Amino acid sequence: MKTTIILFLISSAITTVAYAAKIIKAPFTAAERKTLTAAAADKEGKKMLEAPVDVPLENIDLAYLIDISIGTPPQPFSLLLDTGSSSTWAPVYGCGQACGFPLHSFVTDNSTTLKITDDLFSIQYGEGFSAGYYAQDVITINGVPVPQANFAISNLNDGDLTVNGADGILGLGPDELTVYNNPEHKIVPTLVTSMFQQDIIEHNMFSVYFQPVNFNDNEQNRINGEIVFGGGKIRNRT
C-alpha cells in the first residue's frame, strides 16, 4: 500500500507555535522502514482540555505510526498517519488474510459504545485500498477519549501495512475528501474535527515535530517527534 505520509517531512527539526500552555506530552520511538512506500491518496478516491493533545509517533522511514485505542473497553491499534487521506479505519476481527493478518483487529462485540452505521466505506490509495463500513465509537489518544468518533471498520484491504507494523490508517486530510469514500458522497468528520466539535481541543488543527534519527547508533534514545492536536508548541531547531 502506498500512502502520503506527512507532506512536510524534513530531515531536521521544525518549529511549531504554542497556542495553549496546557499540553499532554508523550515520547515516541523510531523503527527502520521495511517495505512501506509513499504516494498521494487517489483524489477520487467529553473531556474539555482547552489545550492541544500531544501523542506519540513511531518512525519507519517516511511512515509514522500512532498508538490509539478504539472502543469500551479500549482495544489497541497502531495506525499509519496519513495527511493525504481523511478516513480513519481499522481491520475487523476475523478478516485474516483479507486484511493481511494484522497484529490488532477490532472485535465489534466487545465494545459497549460501538454504533455501526448503514454507510459503506471504500477508499483507493495511490497503491492499495480498503473497504468496509462506517461506525462510531470512543477513540482514545494518549489517554484522552474522543466519544462518538467516526471511523471505518475494514473487512477487506490490500494488507501491505501489516508488514511494517500498522493495523490501519488515521486520516488527517480535510473533511471534504471523505465524500469519495462512501457511495452517498457524505462528508464524514475526521477525528481532528470531532475533537474540535466536542471541545476536546481548542483549534481544529494539528502540528507535527520531527527530529533526526541516527539508525547507526544503537545506543541512541530514538525519540523522534510528536503530533499535537489542537495547536502546537515552540521547538528549537537542532
Descriptive overview:
This protein is mainly beta and 238 residues long. It contains 1 helix and 11 strands. It has one helix spanning 191-197, and strands spanning 53-56, 58-60, 63-70, 75-82, 89-91, 115-124, 129-141, 144-157, 168-171, 206-210, 225-229. Strands 2, 3, 4, 5, 6, 7, 8 and 9 form an 8-stranded mixed beta sheet that branches. A 3-stranded antiparallel beta sheet has the order 1-11-10, with no helix packed on it. The chain is globular. The two termini are 33 Å apart. Residues 2-31 and 36-49 have low confidence and may be disordered.
Given helix and strand content, the structural type is: mainly beta
Stretches with pLDDT under 50, minimum 5 residues? 2-31, 36-49
Radius of gyration (Å): 17 Å
Hey, roughly how much beta strand do the residues contain?
25-35%
Overall helicity: under 10%
Q: What's the order of the H and E elements?
A: EEEEEEEEEHEE
| Number of DSSP-assigned strands | 11
- What multimeric state do the chains show? single chain
Distance between the termini: 33 Å
Name the shape in a single word.
globular
The overall pLDDT, averaged over residues, is: 76
Per DSSP, the total helix count is 1
Largest sheet composition: 8 strands, mixed
Observed structural traits:
238 residues, mainly beta, eight-stranded mixed beta sheet, 11 strands, disordered N terminus
List the helices and strands and how they pair.
Layout: E1 53-56, E2 58-60, E3 63-70, E4 75-82, E5 89-91, E6 115-124, E7 129-141, E8 144-157, E9 168-171, H1 191-197, E10 206-210, E11 225-229
Parallel strand pairs: 4-9, 5-8
Antiparallel strand pairs: 1-11, 2-3, 3-4, 3-7, 6-7, 7-8, 10-11
